[in-house]
Amino acid sequence: MNIEPQTPTSKNPPEHFAGDVWVDTIATPNEADQRMTVATVHFAPGARTAWHSHARGQYLRVTQGVARVGQRDGTVIEVHPGQTLYTPSGEDHWHAAAPDCFMEHIAMLEAGDDPATTTVWKEHITDDEYAGSAATDRADER
To answer: What is the C-alpha to C-alpha distance for residues 65 and 31, in angstroms, rounded to an integer?
Structure first.
């Protein structure tokens, strides 16, 4: 048994996040056959990830504030403290804090067979996607 060393809080990179987002690592693999990574992620109001997917899916447990999570079809859902969201393997999504409050979640995911595919980062989301109006815009075009 060991008490894991504490790692300093780090700010997430602007190529993958818009706004201020910080991460505190909780657990990373200790053994060669382990895959699980767990972190607490803190979002300033309106801060968001870029589009991304995970090789083995991801669990997000919201602990404070309100999370907004978007899908490629334009659907945006809100996740509240105490709720856990699962995103399946390979599904494009983004997550963010609501515009009027800080949000914190615990992120849990397993590494892919190729660690480079654990999280595949894509383009930044638009303001319309964040607001959930992209789905309305698409419906208006039909």
So the answer is: 34
